[in-house]
Amino acid sequence: MIGMKHTKMLFSLFALSGMLFFTGCDDDDNGAPALTIQSISASGTDLETGQTVQKDLNAASAAEDVPLDAVMTVTFSSDVNASTATASNVSLTSASGTVPVTVSASGNTMTITPQQELERGTQYTLNLGNGISGANGGAFTATTRTFTSAGRGAVTPPQSASQTAYFTFDGHADDAMGTYDADDVVDITWVADRFGQMESAAQFNGNTSIIEVPNGADLLTSDWTLSFWSWVDTVDHVNADGNKAGHFIMGVGAFHGFQVETNGRADVLIMAARYSKEDGTTIPNNFFVNADGQDAANGGWDAIEVEANVAGGMRTLLAQKWAHIVLTYNSEENKRSLYINGQLMERDNLNIPTDLSTVNGLTFDPTGTADVIGDKLAFGFPFDRSTTLWQNEPWGSYNLPTANHFKGALDDVRFFEAALSEAEVTALYNAERP
């Protein structure tokens, strides 16, 4: 009995020593402790305040409002093998693809710097691979962290396949579609947009500001939609006589292509445009909207099918505030429409006037004048600076600060080679509104 008891005790001791031996090897094959994460943070500029902020990417819930210029820092339990801190072991991905990053390590910290600004309102995944190791040879177990960047995510508009240009004005004048990037930006200030996000809208000073986009005439098509957000400053914008000056908001060759404008009180909105006709000729015509309720049946022009009756007039919608403006032309129906904030302001049936009954689209026609008519899209004036039209007019010369330069802000300008329906305009407004 005694011998059996000693035998059992010896067996138990051997078994226990074996457990201790194998337990001691759990950290790594070479005995080094495993490399683990202590913290992950992202620091950068807050999109609304401009202040430096830091976000915790290692919290129990996914971080939100991570700065677009974020630099990420990972702190480990021990020093990192710097040769393993590479882009092959660290990646940053979203639904749009992989964001190029530079990776470096010093001591027990790893720094990850995206080589481009993050997209707004987008979910990203930070991938840390098992190729990372400790300076002492400790192994690292691959892991991921998910977060959402600051700002509003991109809006997919109705009939997105027909969108030909999209200017976000998020600190630049490039076309998000990649075709119509501006080649000249003059005296533009990038300011907060309707959501309060910094450097997210283009501000025009009312004197010299202009953005010019090559080949703007190509944006005029048979079926057509222009959508944009505007903020019209009617308080401190005067002409040479000290009276309120009008605002040329944008255009291509003025009425040789199109122009959008409002007066000094912002109580009308006008689009002068050139229309192509079935016989190959062209004709200019003004789309004048004041929302006074006078359609064809109530003392208005014969072609007006619908005219909204806005209490207080258009300026209650346009002046000193952000407004969503959409202009459309439907070639099949030969009708044009204006919407503000998702509501139909006016619809014209161009089949009724004899001279417009055969028009079939918007076009650019610089002929029939001795003036030079540039074909660039201009924001802040009705034509580009190569144009000599109205150069002797006090309201129409770009070189005169007191001319009808646009004073205010623009954002999210979209062109379509399609006529959005009323329901689609409302959907776009609801998707883009604050």
TrEMBL record:
Any Pfam family from its record, for instance, is Big_5
Which species? Cesiribacter andamanensis AMV16
Q: Which UniProt keywords apply?
A: Signal
Name the UniProt record assigns to this protein: SbsA Ig-like domain-containing protein
GO molecular-function terms, A-Z = hydrolase activity, hydrolyzing O-glycosyl compounds
Q: Which GO terms describe its biological process?
A: carbohydrate metabolic process
| SbsA Ig-like domain boundaries | 57-148
